[in-house]
Amino acid sequence: MDMEHHKSEFDQKGFTIVRGFVDQSVARVLKEISVKDEAMNQNTHDVLDSDGRKSKLTLWYMPGDDVFGRLSCSDKMNEMMATLLGGEVSFFHAKLMNKEPKVGGKWEWHQDYGYWYEDGFLKPDMGSCFIALDPCTPHNGALRVIPCSHQYGRLRHTSTGQQAGAELERVEEIKSRHGEVLCEMEPGDALFFHANALHTSGPNQSDQSRLILISSFFRRDNVCLKNDPRYNNKDISVIDHQKILEGKHQLDPTLNFSRAQDHIIG
Ligand SMILES: O=C(O)CCC(=O)C(=O)O
After folding, report:
1. Taking CA 64 as the corner, what is the angle to CA 49 and CA 31, rounded to the nearest 5 degrees?
2. What SS3 class is residue 230?
3. Which one of 47, 118, 130 would you pick to mutate in the ligand 1 pocket, going by the greatest count of ligand atoms within 8 A of its CB?
4. Residue nearest to atom 1 of ligand 1 (CA)
5. Superfamily of domain 3-226
6. Which of 44, 82, 127, 141 has the greatest number of beta carbons closer than 10 A?
7. How is the chain split into domains, by residue range?
8. Is 97 in the pocket of ligand 1 (CB under 6 A)?
9. CA distance linking residue 7 with residue 67, whole number of Å
10. Beta partners for residue 136, in sequence order
11. Could you tell which of 143, 183, 189 is best to mutate to test the pocket of ligand 1, judged by most ligand atoms within 8 Å of the CB?
12. Is the Cα torsion angle 81, 84, 90, 92 positive or negative in sign?
């Protein structure tokens, strides 16, 4: 992995893709667990887009000693995030996102800091790692990002469906200046993106699912005004990336899962 290249691309464009960041065998196990795990399924919510289509979302705030948690806590992941964000990072949350074949909905243009701001974080020194567990294609709703959009600061966001969407007039202007990149990905590829990078994804019009995992982080010196244990520095040990599969192949039902009413998210 050429760290210098990824750091300079992230600083300039607000995102970078690392092909094969996670072994395909790990991506396969994550997908298998996602499909059958009881705790995961019981904590999955439908999120409606502005056309009334549903995406499935499960979100949790503490990594467990399972394969998902170990991936978020891996030395490779944490070192990459720290390099990209320019300082030590802390885990924020993980999300499993499933767009089911034919019916899975779109995500509006947004910045994650559009709604993480509302969680009380003072600065946009935050970012996410989006890992493909299924191929992400133009037909099943691959992510699209506007390069350099993180340089425009936080835009105003309003609710559309059950999602937060950025002010479209500005999105269009920024897009006309920089274009957009469709991020086609294979299982195990990772897209790292800045909290102010504008991104969207279309509905799943294919007959293949589009399952992805997102782990999000904030820089440890980025103060959160809310005195909420879900958001503040968590005492998490970093583990060896090679030992991800040694984690439990089952999620602990007492993990700190979000409730449906907790979030309008983008
Ligand atoms: O799943 C997607 O395509 C988009 C997800 C997203 O935009 C987000 O979680 O911020």
Report:
1. 55
2. coil
3. 130
4. 97
5. q2cbj1_9rhob like domain (2.60.120.620)
6. 127
7. 3-226
8. yes
9. 27
10. 185
11. 143
12. negative
Q: What separation in Å is there between the alpha carbon of 99 and the centre of ligand 1? A: 10
Closest ligand 1 atom to residue 112 Cα is 10
**In tens digits, what is the pLDDT along the chain, a chain of 266 residues?**
899 999 999 999 999 999 999 999 999 999 999 999 999 999 999 988 888 899 999 999 999 999 999 999 999 999 999 999 999 999 999 999 999 999 999 999 999 999 999 999 999 999 999 999 999 999 999 999 999 999 999 999 988 767 789 999 999 999 999 999 999 999 999 999 999 999 999 999 999 999 999 999 999 999 899 988 888 767 788 999 999 999 999 998 888 888 755 655 65
For ligand 1, pick from 92, 95, 199 the residue to mutate: most ligand atoms within 8 Å of CB: 199
pTM of the entire predicted model = 0.95
Please indicate whether residue 136, judged by its CB atom, sits closer than 6 Å to ligand 1: no
Residue 266 alpha carbon to ligand 1 centre in Å? 7
Distance of CA 216 to the CA centre of its chain: 6
Which residue, chain included where needed, has tokens 């102010």? 196
Cα 226 to Cα 96, 223, 230, 243, distances in angstroms: 25, 9, 9, 34
